[in-house]
Amino acid sequence: MAQTTEQRYRVAPVRPRSRQWPFPLNLYQHAVGRKWVMAVTGIGLIGFVLVHMVGNLHVYESPARMYEYAESLRTLGGGLVPTGAILWLMRAGLLSMFVLHLHSAITLSRMSGNASEKAAMVTGAKKYEGGRDHVAATYASRTMRWTGPIIALFVLYHLADLTWGWWLGDDFVAGDPYHNVATSLGALPVAILYVVANMALAWHIFHGAWSMFQSLGVNNPRY
């Protein structure tokens, strides 16, 4: 009897706690956290695209105005910091946002695929999104998977073309953005490439905005 009671009330062994990450890293382990990261970095990248576009419109004014714009970026800080320091900090922040956006997109795609397979085995469903947003979410995710890699490859080409001067070769003139832009886009294949890439970017932003508002809770039926 005593042995039976002891077996009935035997205390289970205490398992060691799993490692606890800081809150931001712990949140990033879940799909909700990664959607937030992708949404916030998406807002930052859209802001950069708008500022970059407006700044480059100076190319239609004159070479001097384009040079002044480029020089104003280099001299941000007004002598309080070394020349180019703030510009490099901005580049580092932009690169960080780009990497986080890319990583969260890839890992979310994998998580979505795993969830879809499990749901299909249990309920026969093909996707875990529900309701009237299912079709839009599926279509948006498909287009993002195509336009995302196109944009990533174009960014690398754009840097090699107009920032590092690898593609222009001897025609590249450091410190003369107007000359470099005019020379590069003067070649018809390059101009077509830029048009196609910017169309992919516009498509990506258009459909990404829907997902971004969903992740941040802005696209809510109540309002």
From TrEMBL:
The keyword Kinase does not apply. The chain crosses the membrane at residues 36-60, 80-102, 150-167, 187-206. InterPro entries: Cytochrome_b-558 (IPR011138), SQR/QFR_C/D (IPR034804). Keywords: Membrane, Transmembrane, Transmembrane helix. SUPFAM superfamilies: Fumarate reductase respiratory complex transmembrane subunits. Gene3D superfamilies: Fumarate reductase/succinate dehydrogenase, transmembrane subunit. GO terms for cellular component: membrane. CDD domains: SQR_TypeB_2_TM. The keyword Transferase does not apply. This is Uncharacterized protein.
